[in-house]
Amino acid sequence: MLPASRRPRRQRANRPSRITATPLSLALAAALLGHASFAAAQDGQSSTNGTDSADKTTELSRIEVTGSNIRRLDVETASPVQVISKQDIENMGARTLLQVLDNLPAARPAQQDSRSLFTGSDGASQANLRGLGAQGTLVLLNGRRLSYYGAPAGFQTQFVNIDAIPAAAIERMEVLTDGASAVYGTDAVAGVINVITKRNYQGAEVSVTTDKSSRIDSYGEHQASITAGFGDLDKDRYNVYASVNLYRRDAIPLSDFYDKRPDQYYVNNPNYLKNLRLGTGSKPGVFNPGSYFAINPRTGARVQEAAPGCNNVLTGEAAGPRCIWQTWMNNEIDAGAETERMTGYVNAHFLVGENTEAFAELTYTDIDLRANGGTPRSFGTTTGNPTSWFSRNTGNTVNQFRYPFLGPNNEYNHASPELRAINGGVVGLQYLLQDVGDNYFGQRNTDKSYRGLFGLRGAIGDWNWETAFATAGTHSVTYQTINVNLDGFRKAFGPFTVDPGTGRVIISDHPAYKFGEISEANAALLREAYPTFDIQSWTRLHTLDGKIEGPLFNLPAGEMRAAFGFNISRETFYTPGNEDAANGLITQQGGSWFDGKRNTYALFAETVAPLTEKLELDAALRVDKYPNFSANLAPKIGLKYQVLPQLLLRGTYSEGFRAPSLAEAGTGGVFAQLGGFRDELRCAETNAIANLLRQSRRGGDVDLGNSLLNADCSRTVARMTQPNQDLEPEKAKIATLGFVFEPLDWLSVSADYWFIYRRNEIAAPDFSKEQDIVSMARSPITDSDRAAQAALAAMCADPASGVSCPGTLPGYSAGNVASVVGQYKNRGRTLVDGFDIDARSRFSLGEWGSLNVGVAATIARRKEAYLDDENGWYYGNTVGYHSNPRLRATINADWNYRQFTTSFFVNYVGHTKWAWDRVDAEDNNPETCTAGFLPVPEAQCDGVPSWWTANLSLAWRPTDKLNVGLTVKNLFDRQPFYDPNSFLGDSSDYASILGRSYSVTVGYKF
């Protein structure tokens, strides 16, 4: 939602000290001038009830608007700026900055902290304007930069964690939907989000909010804040205030979500519910002796049996009976982790002498995110692909791990003589290691961030000056208890030997870990075999800036003003990595590390010049110097033309840039894994086997086929991504052209065309493209592969299966991909453009109060990617394809009546195709009725349906001190639809899994 105050009437150029007062303009003035009297807005409202407002004027101080260093009376600049007040945020039902951006049409879905696990930047949330990524959106606090989050997304993208911004102290947000590198430097290609806190505050207030879901019982979101301040800046010559915000979001365990996915998810994953083993497997905490198995060396067939003492035997599988256990239902990784946040903010202003003000800010945020990993790990002897990963200190050598076998003389080898005879006594074991309990495994992320700022501002004659020093930083730590430590595993189950008959690795005949019992001694061994290891990251940012702003001289049409300034910064980023992981001892963790530091320098200048009575020029120029490449010159020019008192035309052109981050161009690299790697060869071969098995009349064949289906279409492989110190900065050309039209005092309409052409983009390797893979290695064909082929052969040889098999049965020609290597590089270009439309109206209802109605929309026109000179604009325009809707819009209506405010808010996202682009449409289209190569419901064959949700809020202020609010989110209880391209298999990017939810807020001022 955009506020009713966004579009003021502009002042006439020949009246530089006044602005015509209308209800819309006065509302914006009240929002922007924290120290101005709110009475002006009240006067403006009363004028609509009968007083002629045409002759009414109000004195306004000069203010600084996001995107400019020049103070001005006219808040409508050549660049489009959207202002979202604290009241607007409450009316839309948002409780966090992330939720505000979810309701902004110009913003696109970005990383959410609750679902950020295993992204590299676990525990943080991002802003993403225009869909150009967090690296293209600059986030400011009171006009100055914050330190990047400690852990870059995907080990590449450094960004500001918007969860660390002090929510309780927010006065408003200003969103500049235009490039601003000429003013702010790097990262401002898609726009700027400037979060502005209260300038001063006196008194005290507390607020408590709680949210609950009607669909997910475990969900809860709770906030409490207190703000207190003292001192009047005008009377006492100082003001100091502080706010503390506490936030908690409850985790959503698997037990509350496993059966709430869209129906098609269970159709496409037929064994999902069955594999949970609810009601059939042994319950958590109950001893389970496990199963033994062997692979026939001649036929490749798997033969299995339940271990003696099993009370939960599963029969009917082709390989034989086995002992099963229930999946622990406390897994919180998928649907949502638990989060606790504390943010403290202190703001102080002191008058020094007649013309100088000292100011200081201190921000501190402590974030703790935790997610239970669910089922305790099992000792699962591996016959398939080994776990593969790179590590820092082992170079290009791929580390691999397989669970070993039990030898013929192992004291825990109680397999039947028939099973032991298959491989000379060597057997595999599937056994549940539950000694450490059901809450040991999982992940935790902590982040401690701060910013301290001290500055001076004042005036020398008509010129205003300001300088400040700021120091900011973050310390992020990821704690994972999920993977094997090879040394600890060896202590529990070693020493390991190689069986001379089969060549298989086998555990000690008398291991320290005692199978068949649950004990504290076993638990201590497992805590070493599956330890909690940490990955720590630090970022630091020190800046010194200064600027001076004032009038240059008078032109015939009015005063020409200018600003000049500088910025010096010192940036560091350090991730030492975990020592065990660096040495290859932690499976699936490669000890990724970064170590970078740099000094940067910038000079900038800006001017606003009234060329005529109606035409005004805005121009800015900034020079940034980064190490390793030439100084970057970023210009910007803007024009606004007051055609009529009611009509303003405006346009801008600028050039932006993004410097390579220290993660991309420093030293170090990513030594880890890559999830979701698609190997077309293995995907096709495995699915050919699976589809034949699924036709069988024999139950075991069908289960095996269901398990194999798509199993090799998305694999986790070892991944090495190397930094590149030869990277050049990204460059961009950005333009806007639009108008603001206020035909009536109660109506404001604006429309802006925007265009961004970004080139020389810094990209991580796209491992789905052969040209990005420097090297690739495959594992050999495995025992599991041979067992699947043997099961297929047995089925085809049995007429009772009812399957007509081809003469040549499908099989495997190669093993799965084990590892890929790539490097960051400058590659390609992106072109995006579209329109922003905004309409605001304000109606007086007489004794029934007032009504504000608004519509905001972003209409995307193009999103195209230029790969290289050989492929050109290969994928075409992807607007209208998956994740790129043509239309995003919001509608709001706020009715103010006496002590009550009722708000209705609708968020709309348009229809798209299932395919990601025209190339992907060859496989995913209405004719195939698939998305991500998986079937979708028949009613959704045409693509992703359009989607909308509505919120209804009621605020009651019975006294000046007390306010009570109730918000019903997703009023009509709309449920997510199936989307196989999403993380959870549903449309949770913009359709909440929570269903209808309720929020209650109580606030009190002292």
Tell me about this structure.
11% of the residues lie in helices and 41% in strands. With 1006 residues, it is mainly beta. Among the domains are: 254-262 and 294-336 and 377-433 and 486-529, no CATH class; 678-719 and 780-815. The strands form 10 sheets. It has a 22-stranded antiparallel β-barrel. A 5-stranded mixed beta sheet has the order 5-8-9-6-7.
Summarize the structure in short.
This protein has 15 helices and 49 strands. With 1006 residues, the chain is mainly β.
List the helices and strands and how they pair.
Elements: E1 18-20, H1 23-32, H2 39-47, E2 57-59, E3 63-64, E4 71-72, E5 81-85, H3 86-91, H4 97-102, E6 137-141, E7 144-145, E8 170-176, H5 181-184, E9 191-197, E10 203-213, E11 220-230, E12 238-249, H6 263-268, H7 272-275, E13 291-295, E14 302-306, E15 313-314, E16 322-323, E17 338-352, E18 356-372, E19 378-380, E20 387-389, E21 399-401, H8 417-420, E22 428-432, E23 442-460, E24 463-481, H9 486-493, E25 497-498, E26 505-506, H10 520-529, E27 533-555, E28 558-575, H11 579-582, E29 593-610, E30 615-625, E31 632-644, E32 647-658, H12 662-665, E33 667-677, H13 680-693, H14 699-708, E34 715-722, E35 730-744, E36 747-759, E37 762-763, E38 775-778, H15 783-797, E39 817-823, E40 825-826, E41 829-844, E42 850-866, E43 887-897, E44 900-909, E45 930-931, E46 934-935, E47 947-956, E48 962-969, E49 997-1005
Parallel strand pairs: 6-9, 34-39
Antiparallel strand pairs: 1-2, 3-4, 5-8, 6-7, 8-9, 10-11, 10-49, 11-12, 12-17, 13-14, 13-22, 15-16, 17-18, 18-23, 19-22, 20-21, 23-24, 24-27, 25-26, 27-28, 28-29, 29-30, 29-33, 30-31, 31-32, 32-35, 33-34, 35-36, 36-41, 37-40, 38-39, 41-42, 42-43, 43-44, 44-47, 45-46, 47-48, 48-49
